[in-house]
């Protein structure tokens, strides 16, 4: 800020002795423009310049430096300074100039008698004489040599002095006078005299802007670099603020957080000359980046019209930014104003700002930031805001900020339930920073438990919120401690929590989940509906893990879904109980439920209605509506509608990508894996490869859904020719499932694809073993899709009639399920087998259906293969052109080989056919050639060829 009085000014009412001009960092361009006016005045023509800038931008220092340069150039210098405290005294600034001019024109050898100054004669009676006397003083000084007149802070001059300057300006055009005026930018003009009347019509106008990085570094005594640049940003390069910042710039200090209460006091005092400006100043400091016009007016407690006038003035003065949100120009100024405010005033103002922002629907983070600064003020409604702000901060990786929000929430008067919730949330935040401290917070939360139901709900919410890795372990530990505390309430009170804990633990560990049977028998007598639904969930999970009965699993899942009531008249599903659907939001449970229910359209619809709720998911990584979207996509994929399924997966994956959760969230990993699997079936190998390349396989290893990722990569590698690597991925998928105790064959049909890969690698024994294991597991499970898939694989590894029987059974089983893609696969394999066995008519019929079905699914690789087999079968039915008896190509080929002396076994081995097929083709050839057997075959074929030649 410019000082009111300039103690360093070499001349304030006196001539300036010649001395070296002081160096002014960063003002070389402005001084160069001023010195270019020197030759004009030295040539006998008056010149003028106006130097403007905001508070503290160095107007006075620039004027003093220019005066020193002018003295060196031969000017006589006289300077006067306007002062806010003297602006009401008539003629004050004119008296300063008159004294200086008297000193310049007086004879040093003779004493000066006191004469009346122009300012002393101001008034209606002596106005003309006073103005003329002032002009004569200026002219007499100019007649003795070039004259430099500097008027600092002319905007603070009294009206009479301004009239004196305006009076002399057009009367000294032919005198060697240079007038430099400095003024605060945007200061309201005086009501009597305008700036141009004092400076002339065409003065050189120079605006002082903020200093650059180099000059800022020099003022601060720093080397040029990032710190100096940050300091310049915090102060806007304002020299006065830089000087104020320098002593506060301690090691490790953030320049954007520093301020000076003295600067705040000076600015507050200066704003008092403008109506309502002090109130707007404080409101702008409190609101910071939230300082919209309406909020400024409300927080300042003034009328909107008065606020608009004050804001307009402060924007013109560059105290506020000229934007739709007129906040204070520089962080250092804002911090200084805040430091000048009493702590209580500041806290209450932040509380009021938080309330105003909340009422306008501002982002949670902005409201929470003000609540954080509203210390020692009771704000009960702010607890939920602080908790939500902490949730978002943790998601953004700002655990320290989240902890600060939650510690502030603990300052409020909380019920025991809310205190437990805040403490557990704080434990999660502190777990990112200091795990032992988090354990202490969990114990503190357990000690604060009041109502049993509330504590169970809070622990369940924590289990749903912390989705994987070490966070999940923290949630399981907290839930276990709370369950132990609630155990005395009986099974109905603790069962839902125990169930959720079991699901979370089963999904977060790599080893086998805890034994369920002992657990289930211990809590068998249940009466509460929620507890009974929890029991059904665990029974469903146990059925899936054991792989014993698909019907039992579906029945138990249906019982767990029983909380969905009938739809309303408008079709909207009604959700009961508030938290009944939470079971299906547990990632492990959701993954298994969708895998089991994918072939049950009615239950899939019920599942989606349970999950399709308006509130945000507990887990911050999961977008709203993600689970029902994913469930519908999985159901579409299971039915063979690959195109629509991929649309669901792609749209959802974009939302996970926006949250950065595709690799870290179990549901995000599942979505990516299902999309890769879908793209493999669609033939979009490049897209699938690109997606897998950006997946972090190491980071997702601790998630149960990582198994899906291995399966998808294995399928892609096999499809793109990297069979060995794909085979290893599929085997790794199987090992993970076995290690996890998962015997359900329909989770991922890894054995079917591993068996195909083994056949391609020439490992027939491994393929047969995998096919037999898959058949055994699928038979035990009893669902159509896994059974049909296993039978298809069995048909690939068996020989002769057994192969055809297995494929026929597979088609029969798959026709009873919605698995159209698997049906198309089985039809393709059967058609290819029929074609190889010479049953071309049957093969054409089978393959025609396979082509149609695979094209309907959008499975381009399968459709191409089925179409190629179909073309081959049609060619096989076409009579060979080199015989007259109408032998097919296959019959002719086998007949020629038999005529050459090969046995039926040797022909079957050479053509990869069964002996029965060879026998059938030979019988057909004998009939068409009209011979009784193999002995006449050579002669008949030779005769046929001779006839054809003729």
Automatic annotation (TrEMBL):
Q: Where are the TPR repeats?
A: 824-857
What keywords tag this UniProt record?
ATP-binding, Nucleotide-binding, TPR repeat
InterPro entries, sorted: AAA_16 (IPR041664), P-loop_NTPase (IPR027417), Sig_transdc_resp-reg_C-effctor (IPR016032), TPR-like_helical_dom_sf (IPR011990), TPR_rpt (IPR019734), Tscrpt_reg_LuxR_C (IPR000792), WH-like_DNA-bd_sf (IPR036388)
Domain HTH luxR-type: residue ranges: 880-946
The portions of this protein that span the membrane are none
Give the start-end ranges of region Disordered: 1-30, 104-124
Q: Has keyword Nucleotide-binding?
A: yes
**Record's Pfam families?**
AAA_16, GerE
SMART domains linked: HTH_LUXR, TPR
Q: What is this protein called?
A: AAA family ATPase
Organism lineage reads as:
Bacteria, Bacillati, Actinomycetota, Actinomycetes, Pseudonocardiales
